[in-house]
Amino acid sequence: MRGGGAGKGYLVSCLVDHRGNITEYQCHQYITKMTTIVFSDYRLICGFMDKCREDINALHCGSISAGEKDIHSQGEVISCLEKGLVKEAEDQDGRHVIKEDCKKAIMRVAELSSDDFHLDRYLYFSCREDRERFCENTQAGEGRVYKCLFNHKFEEAMSEKCRDALTTRQKLIAQDYKVSYSLAKACKVDLRKYRCNADTNLPRAREARLSYLLLCLESAVHRGRTVSGECQGEMLDYRRMLMEDFSLSPEIVLHCRGEIETHCSGLHRKGRTLHCLMRVGRGDKGNVENLCQQALQNLIQEADPGADYRIDRALNEACESVIQTACKHIRNGDPMILSCLMEHLYTEKMVEDCEHRLLELQYFISRDWKLDPILYRKCQGDASRLCHTHGWNETSEMMPPGAIFSCLYRHAYRTEEQGRRLSRDCKVEVQRILHQRALDVKLDPELQKRCMTDLGKWCSEKTETGQELECLQDHLEDLVSDCRDVVGNLTELESEDIQIEALLMRACEPVIQSHCHEVADNQVDTGDLMECLVQNKHQKEMNDKCVVGVTHFQLIQMKDFRFSYKFKMACKEDVLKLCPNIKKKVDVVICLSTTVRNDTLQDVKEQRVSVKCRKQLRVEELEMSEDIRLEPELYDSCKQDISRLCPDVAFGNAQVIECLKENKKQLASRCHQKVFKLQEVEMMDPELDYQLMRVCKQMIKRFCTEADAKNMLLCLKQNKNSELMDPKCKQMITKRQITQNTDYRLNPVLRKACKADIPKFCQGILNKATDDSELEGQVISCLKLKYADQRLSPDCEDQIRVILQESALDYRLDPQLQVHCTEEISRLCADFSEGPFFSRSPAQEQTGQVEECLKVNLLKIKHDTCKKEVLNMLKESKADIFVDPVLHTACALDIKHHCAAIPPGRGRQMSCLMEALADKRVRLQPECKKRLQDRIDMWSYAAKVAPAEGFSDLAMQVMSSPSKNYILFMIALGVSILFLVGLLCGRITKRVTRELKDR
């Protein structure tokens, strides 16, 4: 120093530089005075003139004439150079590049003046009044006044000139952290400890930038290293400073200039301009350039607001009321506050401004898993082990930050057999993030990246919360492959953990608390909660939003069997073996159900579908029966009929399906065929008949707890006339009986019992029928006639007897009578008929009056087809008194007294009564006697108008006649006479000789 610097001021400059280390009091006082003098005139600063002369002239920062002393000597020149340095970083337009030596000199001056704001002459004069206004009690030295003014920079009372000077100072700090005395001092040890300033000889190197310092020390904190509290406090101040004023980040000023001018001009800088840019980055206001997007992402990483929400001033102010009400139980500054705010997103506690600021920040946090400090802390070990990650502030092209979370959640839902799973703590955090991302499609980077085109194409009008993902799921088959894969994976995850659907869980909170709280609290098994919600979809606690959400999830599940987690886990091996290459859930269910049914019918020793799959298959079948939309083939076939015949009918509770059944005759051919097939399946397995099981739920518990599922309807029919039977259930049973009698294929018990009789006696009807048409009870009518002829097999006869007895009480159970006698019933028997199906109250029922009315008015019936049906009824009742309820009721006592020993069936008891009527010694009840006489008259008339069609009919008429003994005697006498004549008269033909025979 003595050799080269003597007489040039280097000695004084050196002492100024090291004034903090001077221990001699008088020397320290002297240097302090000299510092004030030196910094009052840039020409007195050691070496400054030599290094910056050209730049001062080029930037027009003042004239450098020897001995000249003007206003520029009061700090204006240094300020001009500082602004030029800052502008160069922000513009990079190449107009004038300050020489490297001058840059070092400018930063050195700023660094030397960092402890006492008096030494920054331009800032001192610009902020004198503001210092008095805001920082009157702040003692100068160690950068305290700077910090105080920084904290008040955006106060309305702050002068614009002071604000500009402070901003310039902050921009210099962003380029070299040593320009902040307090930060450099507080973090000096930690910077050295974690090697954050390896090359101290390059003050403007990368290591000197504030962003590098923050990232380096934040990385240490996130790794669990110890950073002094004083240093962390300083870091917090400067992270808040970066979030508060976007202009302190030259990359944002440089790359986001267009976005700022177009969308965010004129906004106050109190963090609001940055949030405006973040909102543009989300796509809420248009598109953003990639460089701007990356600059925003870098700033969020540098400021790391996820670690402490207070860093984001705009968020802090917008969400203060929400934090006070919803998150007051969390310690101030805890990272969990951000998570708490996300949990209350779209709830009544959330305010609109907070919602916007929160989503804007979360959009960028979600794109780098490290920016969620809780996730990083719990998952950094798993990420390193499974996803080969680097340090907190390091990146890898092979595994970019956005891909790490995808890697983590793929491992989060692996089974033990699949191996390499996440730790318990990490899985909890991954689930938390998934819950948050489900709230807004833009919080899922992969989804937004791969589905931008599809979102614009299919879902541009779906702007409400949660609608975009639902829309993508609805159009799953239409999406491009990359988007379809992402949506499919997310839907598959939702099926395993429905709590990911946070909005759905909120909507369903009442029903969860009332009916599914144990499942929700314990999570007994994955997928149990959704199954519970489906089972309780029509409870009174269920609101419209929950019903819509649950039904939507059910509809999405139909697109791929993997979207039903429990079904997938129970049946995946069976699907691969028995139903390969089938993806749609409904097709898989049909495939497996068909396999189970075939194995059951063939009585195989071992079912091909596993027990656990059959159990879950039953759950899926029952769920599908509740809503026609869950059976896409049926729904697509009947869409037009639904809009035409059932426009105001709700889909739930199988109401649309029931409406189609009731209007079956009016359905288009394709829909009619599908509905018939559905009814055929339901009759074979009544548990799949949702309406029957719902309406008769309590009656099933009362009467049929021990009944097999396939015999449920039979059990209900047997108990139909019990006094304890619920009228609505009774009505539903009658509906199903009417359906069964329309076609023998809908009565599996009859079909099995009469499998030999039907082709034997009714083949002509079967030959004329087509698969698309119903038989309108023709086969059953055919069997009824053969029952009257006593030609059916015993099993078939038993079933037809039941049908005859039921239809004798209720004319609606006889389809052929309905078809051919509708006009006569309404004309002759209006007092007894109910008109259209079930137009009366459920308590009213048929007791055979309509049938009796038609019999009594037989002579008044005009249509031959109707008359024939009534004659058939008479013929049937003649064969069995039990199928004539009016006669049976009138003669019940007489049967008990006179025919008790006679077994029922085959006309035996009827013959007994006829003989009793003819016997003068027997006294029948008057009503019975009258009814019997009426029947004799009817049969006599029937014999006249409907003579025997064949020998069998003739024999039946003789055997059932009251004078059968006389008739049989006369027939026997005639045969005997013929035999005797033949015996006595010999051959009538001429004998032929043996020769003629042998010839």
From TrEMBL:
Q: Which residues cross the membrane?
A: 966-989
Superkingdom as given in the UniProt entry: Eukaryota
GO terms for cellular component: Golgi membrane
UniProt subcellular location: Golgi outpost; Membrane
Start and end residues of the Cys-rich GLG repeats are: 97-157, 226-285, 287-349, 421-480, 541-600, 608-668, 724-791, 861-921
Query: What PANTHER family does its record include?
Result: GOLGI APPARATUS PROTEIN 1, SELECTIN LIGAND RELATED
- For this entry, the protein name equals Golgi apparatus protein 1
Where does this protein come from, organism-wise?
Answer: Anguilla anguilla (European freshwater eel)
